[in-house]
Amino acid sequence: MSVDSQLQVNGGVTQALIDALDQIHDAVTARMVGPDGKPSGSAIYMHLPVGYPVDPTMYSFAWTPAGGATSAAVSSDGRFAPAAPAAPAAPEATTPAAALAATPPTPDPQLQHSLQAAAFTSNLVDEMLMITKDGIAVSWPDRKVSFAYKSALVGMQAEPVPPPSPEVQARIDAARKTLFTLDADGNMTGYSRKHEIYNQNRKSYEDAVSAFASAFAAATADPAQGQVWPVTSVKYKGAVDKARADLAAMGGQEVEDAIATTQSIGGSAAASFIAQARTMFDSYQLGLAGAVAVNVPYSYIDPISWWDRKNKDFGVVGVHTDSSSVSKAAAGGSKSFGRSYYDSSSSSTSGSVGYSIGFFGASADASHSESSASSGMHTDSATWSSFHDETSNATVDFEWFMATIRRPWMLGDLFHMDGWHIVGKEKGCISDGTVDGQSGKTDKMLPMVPKGFVVVRNVKISADNWGAAGDAFQKAVADASSNTSTSSTSFGGSAGYLGIGGSVQHSEGESHGVFESSSGSDYGWNFHSEGQRGTLEIHGSQIVGWVGEITPPSPMVDAPKDEAKKEEAKKEEAKDDGAKKEEAKKDGTDKPRADATTPPPAGATTTPSAPTA
After folding, report:
1. Binning pLDDT at 50, 70 and 90, where does residue 235 land?
2. pTM (2 d.p.)
């Protein structure tokens, strides 16, 4: 049966969600255009089979190198929250001073949380995604973006730069004589006298400018000094003018021209950027792993409050769709992302545990539910049941936005320039720059870099005739309400539906738990019905898809053949050494032998050697 035919007989919720997928895909891909307005061809969007739930307790108010945990004190409009009222004065202390001094300091919980959130965030966006042609996001098993990028950095080698022309070399030699003293071999031994005078005059000028600014600041802070500043400022301005004149009169321009000449010597841009990239990568390996002595490559997400399902200040998009939209489109025979995704998912994963395409999967008993960021599939110790989608007149409402991943340790400009190669490798070993050439499992080092993800939040699905699925939801809600031992994570449930899914745990209040519930209930999703119409609400945020950028063709040249031969020789030499060691172990020749210089064992009798004739 064709996809369009299947959609004609499927339930209303499936059809409405297909239309929602189309709207998200159209909006995301509309941004993936080049300067000419045509599709860039280097960006791809891949949808998760089931949404990955965003736990605010894991990602909120993440630490940053510049602001620390201060973002927790800033309101949604960017202003600092009002200061807390001062605590009442404590009664006079009666504890001895020695006992007070011995009281250990307590950790700052806000700082601990922000450091933890930074570690969780950095690890979340460090997963490598595999390029697929069917629009489904799949994670590489145990591969990290940071590791693949570092592997490329370690192997990068800049191409040699040709020597400058004789005319350029002559200017360089003249500039070096102006700036430095040289020995007979042309090596620098120190600054020239002219250069030393220039440095002294430059410092005098900078000191005079600084003194002028400091005096002005003092005058504006003191009404008496401020009153006479127009007159007294003449003294400081005169010092600035004299220092500037001395700098120019004593060969300042000549020295600065010579410095400019030496600094403009042509070199390898690739070598400079490779060195800069390695420094940046090492600098952003931060100690976010707590007591574990391992560094984490620091990354952050824009907008910084992406985890907050209530904040709308950074711009979110509201979506409303209904089942009739897909019915009309299917009847017209048009194709779309939703249909291709539906077809691929239903043919490969239909009926799998946790969700179904065209069916509804749900768990609702007393067990905690986990979800995987890698595959988007839910794993749950509960027993799942699938219900045929017989709903009709369905509507879906939710909010969504695109979050951007920022990796300050990655210098992606390297992949857009030539002048370097990977030691011992062929060109294109990092990426061939195409989707077709590296989809699925490939030996490319870094074929694609995840650049962002789509967040869907506050989902509301209404439909007629939920049938057995509605009964299961009603029972789950009733069981949760009557459970008197709902502390910690004793109640768990999850709901998945074509990428609109979630995982929840019990919360004690509005600010706790994986998903908050605005209705004050103890679960992150809620289902209620009036007559034949039922409504499922999934509170909180979910990651439903990822956007990746195909790495440009890189490197653009092969490694030199002699370099490849050297690498091969090293491997062969290492292989031969290993074989020799194994052979020595087998015949025992690797054991130490006694010789004339080896002392005899303790207590052994030695016979003196015969005298030499």
Report:
1. very high
2. 0.73
